[in-house]
Amino acid sequence: MNYSEKVMDHFTNPRNVGEIPDADGIGEVGNAKCGDIMKMYLKIEGTTITDVKFKTFGCGAAVATSSMATEMIKGRSIEEALQLTNKAVMEALDGLPPVKVHCSVLAEQAIKAALSDYYRRQGIDPGPIVGTVPECEDRHE
Ligand code: FES
Questions:
Q1: What is the CATH number assigned to the segment(s) 5-130?
Q2: CA separation, residue 72 to residues 36, 82, 127 (Å)
Q3: What is the full per-residue pLDDT of the chain (141 aa) written as tens digits?
Q4: Ligand 1 mean position, distance from CA 65 (Å)
Q5: Is the CB of 63 under 6 A from ligand 1?
Q6: What does the CA dihedral 59, 60, 61, 65 come to, rounded to 10 degrees?
Q7: Residue 46, strand partner residues
């Protein structure tokens, strides 16, 4: 399979891997296509995402897209993070092979799940802000 240099770089040297023990929001999602899992940790101050870490049992493409996605939302506002799409992440990586596109959805969904968790902890209904993040069960087709 042909991966871009950027994908290989983020796969072999992923950024922001790990956990944040005192995270303000944690999201865990599963991939319907392969069953792989992604966990995302966010540290939020005011409306800014000051730190982000991820852990995954996903494949190399999932590692690379999560690494890039975390780089793209770190230091940004919640609003900007909510607008991040897997397409934008793939573009930043110079593309993914078509059979690997589904892997890039994990990072986007995990960020949304972590933001939902953040709002829930504040006693705010995340639905109108974040939209629906499919539950794990829904995604096993
Ligand atoms: Fe499961 Fe890529 S094959 S995330």
A1: 3.90.1010.10
A2: 22, 11, 23
A3: 789 999 999 999 999 999 999 999 999 999 888 889 999 999 999 999 999 999 999 999 999 999 999 999 999 999 999 999 999 999 999 999 999 999 999 999 999 999 999 999 999 999 999 987 765 444 433
A4: 11
A5: no
A6: 110
A7: none
